[in-house]
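[agent] plan:
  1. take the single chain provided in the ticket
  2. run structure prediction with default settings
  3. attach structure tokens to the ticket
  4. add a short note for the reviewer (M.T.)
[agent] executing step 1
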Amino acid sequence: GDPGAYDEQCLALDRFVWEHQDFLVLVAAGNDGADTNPPGNGIDSMSVTSPGTAKNCLTVGASENNRPGQFGDETYGEWWPGDFPTDPFHSDPMTDSPDDVVAFSSRGPCASGRRKPDLIAPGTFVLSTRSSQIPANNFAWGAFPPAKDDYMYMGGTSMATPLVAGCAAVVRQYLRQTANIDEPSAALLKTTLIHSSVFLPYRFAQPGSSGRADDEQGWGRLDLQRVLNPQPPTKVLFFDETAGLQTGEMREFAIEISDGSVPLRITLGYNDFPGEDLVNNVNLIANDPNGNFFVGNDLVGAGAPDSDNNVEGILVENPATGNWSIRVVASNIPEGPQSVALVVSGGGAKLI
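[agent] step 2 finished; step 3 output follows
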């Protein structure tokens, strides 16, 4: 597909999820990342392709695996010299830094400006099953000596994506059995996975990365423990507002934060009506006990709402303790009603 483009595949995907609100689709971002424009200037932007450019899927990029002893000599430049002709990527090993985004992992943004990928997961030298039908001498990225016939190493965003798909199944089970949400929406699954992600201190991040979300790693590397088994005093709250909002309507949640040493994180997600640009615009706003306000996706502190993305996040590193107001505002809903999902985590967070 054309880099960044929104095509018929994307339209079909967004339409299907809009019509089947509980069906989460995961898509690999692609393996078209390269340092060629010009070489030595960082990984080129906008290489993610359809259907990863759809709005209602969870698009998965790749982080490096941590296998330096096994594959420490395998470098990007050795394997793909045309894509990584110069350092730092040419001589960079593919398994030496789990906090690095894989060099070939496709980057955003989409042509419309939307952020993709949504998150990343390990995607280099992942141990996987080996088909009995492939040639006897084919071991993909590398053989697995203890069981060469049954397993082999493979890589790419298409290896990172099934790891996240397994996590999505665990999230759905947790929401049903522990959070008592009988029929969790795809938006809640996607929002929960994004909420769990840890933004990585990527050594080769493009200038201008906010340090909270960008078009190389999205919201960061998946870490389910942060939402399914958080360290005390962190508490996590889940909201699946399936009744839907119309233009001008709002849902307000009153949250008490009792421990300001834990960052307050708020993530909003929803399945938007099909179309390249955002059709239904829902905004996230939070007010602390002192009257200060925070806006979703305001990564530079400008106070401006986001009208491009159907995932919005707020992160407050040292939140004031006391009662917070979180508002989900339906700014413009031409194709309503619009259901939404919200995940909140913080020190002793509880609904009041």
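[agent] step 4 note for reviewer: Helices lie at 8-19, 68-71, 76-79, 157-177, 186-196, 225-228.
[agent] ticket updated
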